[in-house]
């Protein structure tokens, strides 16, 4: 398994262009199944999760090429609605293939995605939404068979604004007969991007970005070319790394409006942030201030996907901060690893009490999930001495060659891959 080796203590500086959004590209690639023909998606980063999605689409009979940051996807020959269990296990968010498969084939066969390091990852809201549209769902062991001879628009209310359930229901409703109204929908920018993509294919969707989305079913969709939005979580990760290393970094091709809650928190911590169009400039030359209380909540509140990263900045602050995680029940596993680097953090249920320390110290630490791994990289960049981050494959799920990106900003970071063992003769 690859490791990242980081020599800390050097402020980041320079300019970086932000990659396209993983969590926009994934549902958009799945939604491409809704139209027969060749769809082209631009600004798709090279990530393990993207590779898994493309392999699933190939397994379903599509032709998919990922050249540069462009994916060309020909769905003409898609011929099965069965997503192999082995591929579902690699990426649980492939559950939102159910909507497109149900719309295209009248059937979808997937598998319980199962829990992961950050939580149980239930899918009850997905299944309830599809049933409201007329799907029949049978669970045989961990296999889920979903069938619908016809999908009919319905009024659906989500008990929680689930991102994936909102996306699945949108994709199942676009070709249904009649109007679907989805209330208490997720409002994330990735939902808005999915609406723009589906409407570019001929769908009639309104309201994404608000808590009520209206979908008027159409007879068919046609392929298109589309560019996904910048990745707000990668943007936020680099912003926090710049502040934690007391550097000066300019981020280009961003959408600052998607990061209002992070910008607000970082300014409260005393970080200089200047926004100019799609450019964000981040600078810090002093120890950050503590931020009394941050609570992760659905967009536009503070995102759970930036919780572990901001915790690193707060662990270096002058004072005590409280960080409460309300989205995933298992998303504080990075605290133990940060504590091994000298952080002073106490966890009580889903709240972390962070008493800032003057500095962190390099150590060998383990990434437990995608964003926790990114946080440990930030901690290594800020720490005094050498940090080795293990289980880097978690990080590669969401960051396109993170060491290359950070080296461009002056970081002393390299990837070490295990020497392949000579076969025992
Ligand atoms: C999406 O996951 C993102 N993934 C996650 O990003 C992100 O953390 C999450 O939204 C919240 O913003 C993708 O977009 C691919 P949810 P998703 O459904 O759709 C519960 C990353 O790091 N829930 O909004 O799975 C669930 O258990 C990843 O890039 C149900 O109870 O998130 C969780 O506690 C991690 N029943 C909460 O809702 C359901 O049917 C949020 O889940 C669905 C969800």
TrEMBL record:
Its EC number is 2.5.1.7. InterPro entries: Enolpyruvate_Tfrase_dom, Enolpyruvate_Tfrase_sf, MurA_subfamily, RNA3'P_cycl/enolpyr_Trfase_a/b, UDP_GlcNAc_COvinyl_MurA. Gene3D superfamilies: Enolpyruvate transferase domain. It catalyses: phosphoenolpyruvate + UDP-N-acetyl-alpha-D-glucosamine = UDP-N-acetyl-3-O-(1-carboxyvinyl)-alpha-D-glucosamine + phosphate. One of its GO terms (molecular function) is UDP-N-acetylglucosamine 1-carboxyvinyltransferase activity. It comes from the Bacteria. Keywords: Cell cycle, Cell division, Cell shape, Cell wall biogenesis/degradation, Cytoplasm, Peptidoglycan synthesis, Pyruvate, Transferase. It is an enzyme of class 2 (transferase). It is found in: Cytoplasm. GO terms for biological process: cell division; cell wall organization; peptidoglycan biosynthetic process; regulation of cell shape; UDP-N-acetylgalactosamine biosynthetic process. Belongs to the EPSP synthase family. MurA subfamily. This is UDP-N-acetylglucosamine 1-carboxyvinyltransferase. The gene is murA.
